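Crash report, auto-generated. Payload:
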Amino acid sequence: MLGRIVALVVLGLGGAVMLLPFVWMVLTSFRPAAAVFEGFGASAFIGFENYARALTTAPLLRFMLNGVIVCAGILVVQLAVAIPAAYALAKLPFRGRGLLFGLVLAALCIPIQVPALPLYLGLAHTGLLDTYFAMMFPFFLSVFAIFLFRQFFKSFPDEIIQAARLDGVGEFEIVWRFVVPAALPAIAAFSIFSIVAHWNDLYWPLIVITETRLAPPPLGMLYFRDAETGSNYGALMAGATIITAPLVLAFLVARRRFIEGITMTGLK
Amino acid sequence: MAAIGLERICKSFGGTRVLRDVTLAIRDGEFLTLVGPSGCGKSTLLRIIAGLERQDSGSVTIGQRRVDGVRPSERGVAMVFQSYALYPHLTVARNIATPLEMQRLTLLERLPLLRLLSPRRRRIMRGIMAEVEAVAAALQLEGLLGRKPAELSGGQRQRVALGRAMVRRPDAFLMDEPLSNLDAKLRVHMRGELADLHRRLGATFVYVTHDQTEAMTMSDRVALMLEGRIEQLGTPAELYDAPRTLAVASFIGSPPIACIPVRLEHEALVAAGTRLALRAIPDAAILGLRAEAVTPVRHGTPGALPARLSRAENLGAEWLLYATLEGPAPTPVVCRLTAAAHDAARDAGLLGERLWLLPDPARALLFDAEGRRLVAAPLRTRIGAMA
Amino acid sequence: MSLALAAPAPVEPFALRIGHAYAAPAALLLALIYIVPVSVLIWLSLTDYTLGAVDIRFLGLDNFSRALADPVFRRSITNTFAYVAIVLPGGVLLGLGAALLVHRRIRSRSLWEVIYFLPVTSTLIAMATVWQFLLHPRLGPVREITLALGLGEVAFLSDPALVLPTLAAIGIWQLVGFNMILFLAGLSAIPRDLYEAAALDGASGGIDRFFRVTWPQLGPTTMFVTVTTSITAFKVFDTVRVLTEGGPAGASEVLLYVIYLEGFQYFRIGYAAALTLIFLAFILAFSILQAAALDRRIHY
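Recovered output after restart:
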């Protein structure tokens, strides 16, 4: 009994540390600049002004829109490339299949920061810096998705595919109608993983984007910080809240899926 | 060596009553089996004896000592789990040694790195290992002491689980379906081994199974449980020949007993439109016939029941005839014949699509409408005597 | 003609063609995004190329020897390893601890999972900014705590001795929830009857149960969490870029940050390429460990 209480207290303290920044962020975003460091007591509510100020100092909504465009673009191409590739690796014996899979496995170990330099040079050379394409391009291929989907497709019964082929069903239809629906949980979980990872990515956009109007949320937050120098912490926190809100809200709505998706790297 | 007493044990999980007022006295040194279909509460009862579950009400006594609230390891019992529950990261030797380590080493001496500092530990471990080797020899596990459970076969793992239980020299061994993960042949072999072990050790064995063959072949006494209650407690022979209720008769015995509706007509029992050569006992509602309680006879024999043969199974040493009784309520009936009896019947022209089956009065069982068995003197009637 | 009659089932050559078609886009992107760039990277690391330079000289392995002697680079390696040395035990042990505490709870488990996982989904740049204010030596609420503890005003992010541990603490804050979820999955996989057998054997106390059953069963999970945390910690960049820009005086310059500066601020491409390859070597070492850990998990 005592053990349970101690455990609860410890968990509670840890939870408080986890939540402290969020609570502080939102509270501060409601306060006037002078009152910002008054601890947790009640004080004047000027939330509307702070948020208005944040939205006008930097195009925060634009940043979110960029995030949506970039993440959606990346995800669509990732799925369009990975699903057929994974299917081929799992079910279609073709020459070079082993080699391709070996390369996929090798690429799994290479983080994006490694090819970043040559990719940057290539994009600079072709004048494609400061474009949506530049932000999305290196992520079009997700070796993780290929690896994951291949695992799922492999366990799909061969007999169903063979029966469908004998019935004259086209291969594309087989994939689209039978195999993909069976792997939907994996596809959904991966989609969440992809969206969260790329929404929160700073390194690559920092390298290829210099124009404010194209910045995704993390880069936008950086610009916003620089723009909001001075002591209007209320507005700064308002901006931080706006940037953080979408993913947090999405997480609260789809908790299970989120956790499944993001920990896929661990539970595959 | 201890007797185990269970007094009015009740247990519910959530809203479901799993054990209803169970009272059971297990004798010192006996092999008692708790048998019944899944969900009847037998495993729960065993776990309550072990201390892994706490009963809602009622008491448990082990060897004259009330053990309610006593920790499992201090009750003087050892348990063999259905999945064996061997520690996967420990060798066979260390698995068997674990209970002794827990008993004889202090906490400090058990901690992973700190224990290397204790010389006393080394001495004690040597003593423990000697006992482990003795137990391993008794179970023919000597060559396997250095292996891990993943490297053992099912039968070997089971013996390790037994060894871990034996090394504690418990007053009672509790076994939760230990044979159900083994293949059929191994199961038959292990049945003999366990019975042998019981004889050698002389300890109390409480055995849980859903397999009535195991219950019948291994036990001194059997407690058949249905829906949280003990339906009947007795020797295997008692349960087989003198079942208290239809439920007991139906569960015990293979192939299952045939249950034929009967009614009283003019002071005679009638079933399937035939007057039976059995004494008419009032309240009789169901006639229970085991496969060895019927014989095929000539058409016209008084008391013989008409039946249609569905199929005949030839098991080599015996035949099983599966038939359906004709009449208002078609009931399945099985007839068991030795190979010789079968051939004789066949040659006498008694086996065809239509059979006439004569119940053996000495073996027939009568039950009332509530399923209770009606006990009476020999059931032969005047009709039979006159014929 | 007669050959066609004797041919095997028509699926094979068909599958060969389709297979190539389906895998082609991935193969192309694999070449464009990984194979070509990494090859170019290797080539670049052997030159003295800087952006906008007119000629390139071949240097052999000079870039690498220069890196090993470069105090900035060496400092970034020690900084990065110091960071990992804090985040690794902190993240793994706290994640394990949280999982052990949450595991027993039935009704509130969902709630705790949400609370601890929230930092994992948040945008680190924004939250790091919040932490910056929480930890502000003159204006943040943490100042109250340090004053109450008699430590005075603590300059978490501007004191060279404290900056790495502070960044590490923020890093731990962000990944504890992730580790907790992984450990929870590992704990759920432990069969209940192992604990019961241990109880019967006399191991019913918390410490005994932990060392006899929990810790051995969690072995592969722990290994995996350790390697994943190491790799994530090794790739630290965001907090450094946002909060300290490597300061004060390079005390928080980590490997990726130095690579970023060399490649994308100073445009010393050849040198940055060499540094990137060294970075890759470390990551590969960790990844091989990760693959080995996964393998053990499957066979356990």
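Post-recovery validation: The two ends of chain A are 37 Å apart (CA to CA).
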